[in-house]
Structures are given as structure tokens and as C-alpha cells.
Amino acid sequence: MYRPVLVVKPAALPISVADVKTALRVDGPDNDVEIERLINAAVDHYEGWSGVLGICLVAQTWRQDYGRFEDKMALALRPVQSIASVTYRNSLGQEATVAADQYALKQDGGGQSYVRFVSEFSAPTDLYEDAPVSIEFVAGWPLGSEGKPTTPADIQTAIIMFVQKHLDEAARANWDILDRVEKDLISKYRLPLI
């Protein structure tokens, strides 16, 4: 399995600048750019392949490449909403798509998603030498009505605390407490270690 590649970025932040300003009781537009920068920093800290949670906070499309077909093909990010396509390249580099009825999106007890092929699926063996199999998938919480993110409230609250720690001078005096609460809010989204 190779490192996943972002194909389509999310259409929105997991929490708006206005919602963060309301929570922190910040008035006026003076801090809007800084608050948006800090929200993005929190998102980078939590999400994606290199984030501490390995999740996607708002729906986005990723591509995961593999060296070969397996019965079960793990997806590196979560929560996975759907599979957009499963493709492969033959030894000549020609791309083909696996029919959607040949696989299903599954999830194990720990929340890890994977693609499972039907027992009748005959995996091609004449594959290209470098990353021949690709799965495109949508991961992250979808946008709800009116385009508002449906990212869980505890993650949104953790983002607010992240912003507060870096924006508010008074919050820096309580950094340890805010940091502990922020980590408690996101702890259930970490993959369990087995």
C-alpha cells in the first residue's frame, strides 16, 4: 500500500470562522484571517495521512494505490463514505475499471474501512510494475443542509480550543488544561492499537 493522494479537497472547513468567533466571544473582523489560519492549522494537525487522527473532517476524495490485488484492501483514512472507483493498469500501462458489483465497502470492529472483493472476482495478474491498482474513495463527514459541515461537535469543540490556545493571550496561561481537554475530545477518533 502506498501513501494516499488527495484528489478533491473538501468544499468547506469543519467549522466556520463565524462559529469559532461566537464560541470565543470575538467581535469584529480584525481577527478573521488569523482565526481561519488557525482553523486550517488545526485541520492539518488532525486530519489526513499525516494527521494525528488519520481521519478526514469534511468529505473529500482520496486515491489509494497498491502493488497488487488482495481479497481485502485496507483504506488508510476514515470515515469512508463511498468508493468512487477501483481501477488497475495492465503491464502495457492500459487502465481498466473493476465493475462495482465485484466489490463492497466494509468496516472492521475498530472502524478501519476496506474494500472486499466478491469470492467470484478473478483478479488480473498481468499488472503494471509500479502501483498498478488504485482505489478512489470519499472520506470524511458529508456537508449537510445549506452546505454546513456535519463534523462531530466534539471535533469542532477541539478545533475551537486549538484556536483559543494560539489566539487568546489569557488562554496561554491555561495551556496545559486546554491541551488536555482538547486531547480528551478527540481521543475516541484515534484508531485503537492492537
From TrEMBL:
It comes from Rhizobium grahamii CCGE 502. This is PhiE125 gp8 family phage protein. It comes from the Bacteria. InterPro entries: Phage_CHP (IPR011738).
